[in-house]
Amino acid sequence: DAGVIQSPRHEVTEMGQEVTLRCKPISGHNSLFWYRQTMMRGLELLIYFNNNVPIDDSGMPEDRFSAKMPNASFSTLKIQPSEPRDSAVYFCASSRTGEKLFFGSGTQLSVL
Amino acid sequence: SQQGEEDPQALSIQEGENATMNCSYKTSINNLQWYRQNSGRGLVHLILIRSNEREKHSGRLRVTLDTSKKSSSLLITASRAADTASYFCEGADGLTFGKGTHLIIQP
What we know:
- The complex is a heterodimer.
- Chain A is mainly beta.
- Chain A has strands at residues 5-7, 10-13, 19-24, 31-38, 42-50, 53-56, 65-71, 74-79, 88-95, 102-103, 107-111.
- In chain A, strands 2, 4, 5, 6, 9, 10 and 11 form a seven-stranded mixed sheet that branches. Chain A has a four-stranded antiparallel sheet with strand order 1-3-8-7, with no helix packed on it.
- In chain A, strand 5 and strand 6 (53-56) form a beta hairpin.
- Chain A starts with a strand and ends with a strand.
- By secondary structure, chain B is mainly beta.
- Chain B is built from no helices and ten strands.
- In chain B, a hairpin with a 4-residue loop joins strand 7 and strand 8.
- The radius of gyration of chain B is 13 Å and the shape is globular.
- The chains are: A mainly beta, B mainly beta.
């Protein structure tokens, strides 16, 4: 199994641009999580899906952030427009409900 | 709110010594999990302890759980340089992580 796959690994963009982060969960996992990690705030849950349905998006900081899971094998996190304070590492993780999480390698986002 | 909060925030010890990290949580849990994060990488699951368990071992790892105090501890015995990482506890099925304990093993 290839594990959770995230792309891109690094993203550098200018303020105001749209950013799309991608995640492929492990096959058979029915829960998917998006996190943001910074030194100041630690690891924050942004949103999680169960069976492709968003369950809790209370961690999404603003309307500029949106996430979709069109099918069991793909999810996106979009930031539009991006701002410098969005700079962080974004992680995707998947699991079977109630079991341990498997994390992707993350996307290092820098908004200039 | 954070379901898992680790203590201390940072810990530096000599190679070969034991490292102990603590975790406190706020609400009832079904299980508690510990994860490790190496610099620049995603979190990796270490061990899960269920609410009806008091202690669990896995290799050099020993985890305890005290549900009456809403706390857990992770002990790493005979530490190695490769154990240098951040360690997180989580007790809400992935919903909340603390800021972790940054462990440095000095050779």
